[in-house]
Amino acid sequence: SLFSLLTSTRAWLFLFIFLICSFDSHQMAPKDPNITVFRVIFEVISAFGGCGLSTGHPTVTSSLATVLTVPSKIILILTMCMGRHR
Q1: Whole-model pTM above 0.70?
Q2: What are the CB-based long-range contacts (under 8 Å, 24+) for 70-76?
């Protein structure tokens, strides 16, 4: 039962969302209202699905991932690999 929880995709996605929110908590709302938990959830699910969608950020022309910290970018990369090899 514990093994199935550890290998559960939902548990890993929740952990990835939690880690990105904790790494980027210093720049999330209310400091920057464009970086919210819902946008982080969208980025993680999009990375896992491999569809490549991003909500974007108004101050940069590219995706929201460009304003995240380096550990958060690494987590997004791991999420993409995990989604690709599921």
Answers
A1: yes
A2: 71/19, 71/23, 72/19, 72/20, 72/23, 72/24, 75/16, 75/19, 75/20, 75/23, 76/16, 76/20, 76/43, 76/44, 76/47
